[in-house]
User: What shape does this take?
Amino acid sequence: MSFDNAYEALSDSSDSSAGTEDNDGPNDGHWAFGTGFTDPLAAVDTTVPADVDAADLALYSLMLGDDALIMSHRLQEWCASAPELEDEVALANIALDLLGQARLLLSRAAAADGRGPGEASSVRGEASSVPGEDRYAFFRAEHEFRNVRLAELERGDFGELTVRLLVFATWRLALLRRLAASRDPVLAAIAAKGVKEVTYHRDYAAQWLVRLGDGTEFSHERAAAGLAAVWPYVAELFRGHDVERRLAAVGAGVDPAELRDEFDEVLGQVLAAAMLDAPEVPVQAGAVQAGAGGRDGVHTGAMGSLLAELQSVARADPEATW
Amino acid sequence: MSAGRGGARRDGGDVVTAGVTARAVAETVTDPELPMLTLADLGVLREVAEDGGTVTVSITPTYTGCPAMDTMRDDLVRALHRAGFPDAEVRIVLQPAWSTDWISAAGRRKLAAAGIAPPRGAPRPVTGPIPLVLGPSPDPVRCPHCGSGRTRLVSYFGATACRSLHRCEACREPFEHVKEI
Assistant: This one.
């Protein structure tokens, strides 16, 4: 629909929520925060397959949704800071794709919880108008987030960003491609769309890494430093959590251990073209990989300040509507 | 905006124009970000079902994060209300995932006329790992201004998720392209 002027657009939209008998009204009195005002899965059959544990499916959806949400947040930090306008736009687009995936996955978690999207369990946020996806994003505590730690690391320079995005997208693409065959039709649909998007994310990061690695002495050095910073967090991507393995066993999820060969193959191609070597992970950094990680809700020091920013406005006035 | 808007809304179903189907109305609604195309041209409009007085329209997002879905829904509902279909609902379907192959021939002509290079064929589904693209495409997009094939990809991501940025080496003009998915 096009409007001849902004006033007409405004008056038309206020007209639509004025409470007339055929109220267009999906937007009236909606919660003030969040990315959308309707459940993105409202018209999708979210019945959990009979032999899939609903609590596992909810937690698994949170894991994949949190990966996308937190990585998207870090990418959004590049708005107004990227080296070129084109890359600023690219990073914002990639962040938007991931935010869209996060919305669907968090909504899937809320629906699988069996309490409906408006009443997601174990999540604060009393306002009944707050969608499940937003309760998960804005009212969970740090230990309730299940993203891999790679996603949450403090923003580095463009070399670090390029490596992190390449690692994340290569891993996620391999995961989503397999998840498109999930026996949960909702996850399968989300994954099939995600594959198309993340293919472009991976190619974007790969081409930039080749440009940097095979560029100037300085750009090569920054790319190598990015690799060194990111590499200690790579092993965690493939370690897997009991929930992931249980869902993989019933054909609803993917065991990330299966993704390592494909990941190594793709990274090998890019690093060779970029004249870079995968770093040796020092023993101390290796120790970071042992024990609990992001999938268990155990995060790095960077996560607290990230969430403080992500959640501050919604937490300041959780009942606000407009 | 048609002058009949208020009347259609107040009078509900009484002003249905004889012979105008809900599908025909839905097919007139344009995309908020590519206004030269209708949602039908874009392949986003999947189904229009009439059951008694109820109209159910199914649309699918181009990209998962497409911020225009709420606008599309509101535009469809408003257009149907004005045409005398007071009971209209819009459903979002996710599967099958949208493909640029669904853009109609008319839609492709309208894109080209607006200076946006239409998509080529979408990548074929593969059974194994998705091939990595490290270099320039061996099949560059044709310039929508001068028709030259001597063009260069500037960025995979343009003003919206569905468009990439290119430059023509022949006529030197920049242009956008609806990238294949």
Residues 18 and 25 of chain A are 8 Å apart (CA to CA). Confidence is low (pLDDT under 50) at residues 1-27, 116-127 of chain A.
